[in-house]
Automatic annotation (TrEMBL):
Protein-lysine N-methyltransferase. Monomethylates PRMT5, modulating its transcriptional activity. May also act as a histone methyltransferase. Plays a critical role in cardiac development. Acts as a key epigenetic regulator of gene expression during cardiac development via its dual activities as a methyltransferase and negative regulator of HDAC1. This is Protein-lysine N-methyltransferase SMYD4. The gene is SMYD4. It catalyses: L-lysyl-[protein] + S-adenosyl-L-methionine = N(6)-methyl-L-lysyl-[protein] + S-adenosyl-L-homocysteine + H(+). Keywords: Cytoplasm, Metal-binding, Methyltransferase, Nucleus, S-adenosyl-L-methionine, Transferase, Zinc, Zinc-finger. Residues 100-440 form the SET domain. Its main location: cytoplasm. The keyword Cytoplasm applies.
Amino acid sequence: MHGYPERLQPKMMLRKAECLVLLGRLQEASQTISDLESSFAAKPTLAASQFQILQRTLCRLKMKIQKKENLTETVSAALTKAFEDMDLREENKQISSASASVSLCTDPFKGRYLIATKDILPGELLVKEDAFVSVLNPAEVLPLHLGLESKWDTRVTNGDLYCHRCLKRSLAPVPCDGCSYAKYCSQECMQQAWDLYHNIECSLGALLLTLGVFCHVALRSTLLARFEDAGEVTRKLCGDISNKDTRLPESKNLVQTLSYDLGGESEKNGKTVETPIPGCDINGKYENNYYAVCNLLPHTENHSAEYKFLCALSISALCRQLEAASPQALMTGLTSSKLKAAMAPVLCPESSIWGVAMLRHMLQLQCNAQAITAIQQTGSKENIITDSRQVRLATGIFPVVSLLNHSCSPNTSMSFVSTVATVRASQHIGKGQEILHCYGPHESRMGVAERQQKLRSQYFFDCTCPACQHGKHRTTAEPRWEAFCCCSCRALIQGDEVLSCGNASCTESVSRDHLVSRLQDLQQQVGIARKLLRNGKLERAIQQLLGCQHDAESFLSAEHSVVGEIEDDLAQAYAALGDWQKSAAHLQKSLRVVEVRHGPSSVEMGHELFKLAQIFFNGFAVPEALNTIRKAEKVLLVHYGPGNDEIQELQKMKSCLLDLPPIPGGPSL
């Protein structure tokens, strides 16, 4: 268009084709090559030698395209069957946001739960649900190393980096004009938040930060009810309040008010229709709406009197501020049709309806709040090998996810994108089996007694999952990732106060207190090494870590979690020095510890394999890198699906390695 010499245009078109191949836009690349060949055939402009070079280059590009197309077809064929479900392949007619592979059941002992209606493969998407409500957790200080030597507090929190409505990461947030605390990724998000709830919350920001995130979630849930036909819920609340002394209800009345049954009988076309499962509408459908939220159990009878008093006091303080606002303020943002719907069912004459609804929600949250998490990279961006951790971004309510019961060894894996939770099968689930999720206490992280105590104190039940049943009957031997070993023969040692060697020919014994003290000292030394690593003092960090490694070998089992952490840190340090061979060797030792503790198909194993793939990739160990990439993809696809950032990165590495020309006698790790 701008007068580029016609005789040189084939070179420009060739460059375009090469770029398109690298970008993976294979169809466009093929078309560009075809256009180039047609153009040259019609009007040759190159000398014979240049034409031969062009032909060889075009032949090479065509082979690349063919290889990538074959790879894409192979990968697509393998993945399409299990992972064409970035969205649910067939949505459930009984449960919104759920796959047709599951069904909702109820039981007098374990309440509502989901079961498989067919055999489910690992990686299959079972639930994809947007939070009914979510509130950003502002207090988490992120471990970002900005390199700022300043007397000012430059710490960064979730509230600075994530949109307060959609939770998307935003490095140039748009602050609210009123409070400047709430920040959004765009003007559109800011306006939507204002219309839905922030017009009420804006002036309450300081109070909400003081009262805590549960109180904030309770308020926002009630505000969102204004936009739904929540008449059945609120009429029941209004009726309960009007039939009781609402000044200071007795504990019995409080339980009755907050534990009402929203199920039961309804009328449809003049006939009485039974709603068998709480939370379902008269047609038997369970949806992500305010009615389902209200049917989540508040466990009022299980909470301590002190906790209920604290919740009631918090809601009372919030109600006083709400009462100070005019009724018109509560209607801000509603259209005329929604305004009419909201005024009738939601704002009944007694202002205490707001308080009762919010108190119910606050009591629900201990058992039904879901932590919305994200995988964040830690350390400096200059690190070639990615190290990451899971952080809690927000607290939300997911009515469908809340139907999942707990297991310390679950058959599902949960991840989040923005405010959307996805639940995938982490293993084969047979038809009729229950779909189970872990509430936090996992068998790979805690012993049976600790898990039981945590579940009882927070969720008010005694876990009887197979992992707990097996653990109760197992011997007192500690798991290998927590076990000590004999300093003489390296056999595992067992016992309570005094641990004895398990080797019959060895008579070594040692007190548990002594070993625990050594372990604490070792962890302090590892902490010093990590500080050196963060400050870029790599040689000193390596020497410190090698000393820790030698100490650990003298009294910890080879699969102890601390041993794995030391090996992982050594891998990071050697990678920073560019010594890929040593880095890979140490990370492979860490990988063995992760496999013993979490299993070969665990998400933790996937993250470690991803790091190992990065090491092989940077070390130009092509066969090892491709093999590790394949393993990492296989594991991570099950837990996250094809849209995950690490999977995208693995596919880019694979594409780059396949494009490399053969390296005779190239480096190998």
